[in-house]
Amino acid sequence: MEPGTVFVAGATGYVGGRLVPLLLARGYTVHAGVRSPRKLAARPWGAHPNLRALPADVTDQDSLAVAMRGCQTAFYLVHSMGAGGDFAQADREAARNMAQAAARAGVSRIIYLSGLGETEGGEEQGLSEHLRSRSEVGRILAEGPVPVTVLRAAVILGSGSASFEIIRNLVERLPLMITPRWVRTRCQPIAITNVLGYLLGCLENPATAGLTLDIGGPDVITYGELFRIYARAAGIRAPLIVPVPLLSPTLSAFWVNLITPVPAHIVRPLIEGLKNEVVCRDRRILDLVPQELLSCRDAIAQALSEARQGPVPSCCHDAGNACAPDFLAARVGRETCPAEWSKAGDAPYAGGTLFTADYFATLDAPRERVWDAVVRIGGERGWYAGDLLWRIRGLADKLVGGPGHMRGRRDPERIGPGDALDFWRVLDVQTGVRLLLLAEMKVPGAATLELRLRSVPLPVPLDDRGGTRLELYTSFRPRGLWGLLYWWSMYPAHGLLFPAMLRNMARAAHAPLLEGPAKIPPRPGVL
User: Domain 329-519 has what CATH class?
Assistant: First the structure.
């Protein structure tokens, strides 16, 4: 059968980021529905001739219909759990948009990756809100005119997956685990490679149309056993696990969020779902799409190998918008100004205050050498100054449910739009020119950090290749009184931290300082 054209919703997410290159390798033309085209372009396969990056948002039915035109099959690999708030309602609306848009575009089939969980009488009774929402999405899609294949998976084991990161960090950091009773709940984990195999197999097997199929690996184990399997695969001592009856899911989620890099808005629904047994009851998939299933030990060993070799193909932190409407364009530029600012700061009628703290330094080094230091910022390399302060700020962020400072970076050498960088999100990368970051930490407002480079002439006796002006721009749009108090309480620290960052970047680039670091005067109308 000739490879056709497929649509992928969630192409830059954890599963989609691994599925798309496999589809391209098999000769399919892929329409990737994305909110952030530059985020897609930054992937290693982003320039593939058979890839079409099309603007599409699951909240906009018209954009979905346009992006799916000419496609025979659509993969639906998105959920709203990471968005916080009422994710179940957001998932309902998105599913309705997807079902109707697929029908308008003439799509022949939708393949949806759902969550596995026990139901009673076809209803979602007793399920956590997360699992109930995933099941409901499948039902809404199936109620539309386009046939749907629903694959229901439990714990997905793979480098960078939320489940794997939670397991890895808990086992490696805690010699003793005080756990709730869910540690004895049975589950049937599945390797990400097997999930991808089932997605591709269903695409190429028309007999799977209209079916809801359970997918899982060969092992049915408890979460406590999964922790011990990880310890053996990693070659470390297994933690002592002490189940207690009084530890609530909310308290468990808070603790897991504090210990692991997975943010609270993802951890909480996952932890609440651990009370539900997630074991395959329907095994038709074994005959419909035969493949060799990895054991939990082999899946974890594979994930560990990928994580150690780095960079991982995708991770749970990949979700997030990396470009946005033009707002405050005069300050942060233009087409990349974050959409979050439209709701994170004070209302327009309140004046829309913008605070800035900008610094520069002139370096005796070519721009390329300075950029090498700039692009390695964050992760294990640190932030060039005040690393203890950054870690304390990250811990404070974790305590209030933010992502904290443990996400690190996916690749120690390269960075692209949409990447998570500790508690920042990369909005824009222009090699040798600009790095723009949006703060995802919990703050009463919205903040950006930007590094810009430009070549400047130097006196001939110094270097006829010219030097570099390195500029650091910070912007903060406060929300209410707490936003104002936050900015002014941090302002003295900024005056010490940011110049030190520039000095240490110069040192890392082996670039003598010729001028600065010094403050850049604010523009008129900006505080």
Answer: alpha beta
